Amino acid sequence: MKISDLTYLRETYGSRLQENISLSTCTSARVGGLADALIITQTSDDLAEIVKRMWEKEINFIIIGGGTNLLISDKGVRELVIINRARAVQFNERSGSPRARAESGTTLNDLAQKAAILGLSGLEWAATVPGSLGGAVYGNAGAFGGDMAGNLVSIDIINHQSGRQTWLVDEMEYGYRSSILKKGHLPVVILSAELALTKSTTEVVKQKMELNSAHRRSSQPSGASMGSIFKNPTGDYAGRLIENTGLKGMRVGNAEISNLHANFIINHGQTLASDVKALIDKVRTEVEKKFGVTLELEIELLGEW
Fold first, then answer.
1. Which end of the chain, N or C, is more open, meaning fewer C-beta atoms within 10 Å of its C-beta?
2. Domains within the chain, CATH numbers bracketed
3. Set 30, 87, 177, 284: catalytic member
């Protein structure tokens, strides 16, 4: 980061600004180098204000919510890192069409659990998905037959050119684990989202969530990971392809391709991002060699590689 940018951040944010912070504590994989500068935000208004200032000053930044689906380089990142902990949630459960409005730093599990207490259905799939609402909206997260495209009504954003706006779900151009934001890397930050729900009972919703949770525990590994590494290719499963190359259990350093689900790489402690990246590259090479399929990353790589 340029000295002039760092000086501006110090003068503007004072003790809020953290410097030379390890990003391994900010991601579910528990790997990653240092951030030159880091700020934690607690509200969507604060997030919008910070983002606006960074654009005005032409200071590059990245936003991290739950830190899932991310592999951060051992060399770290030179941009300002904004940790999004804006987590206010409101429900309109009494109308004929119940809605939830939540800030983008809200965790999916917390949102699903709060909906369950109110007897609202529609987010059972999300209770087992790690990460934040903003990340889920950005990448169209999904599980157990549900996804964000099926729940989303609208999002509130801040746009570099146009300021604050509301987008309807159709404007997201959702596809499998993709959106116009993810495909186009547009200068847009998600502040909050409105989700459609349906009326049910707490007992029924929680029962479905428990079944989903049990299935996930039996089919996906525990431990530090990024979640699914690769998108499923059309008509097939990335895990099946990887397993049939014989790579299950392969290790580089303390990073291992899971023996339970081959589309997961587990950090067994003191793992380097470069070790994880080496396994990713090995998987892509072997799957393409054996099946002629080029696997597409579901995770994103951040930092210097």
1. C
2. 3-84 (3.30.43.10), 89-219 (3.30.465.10), 238-302 (3.90.78.10)
3. 177
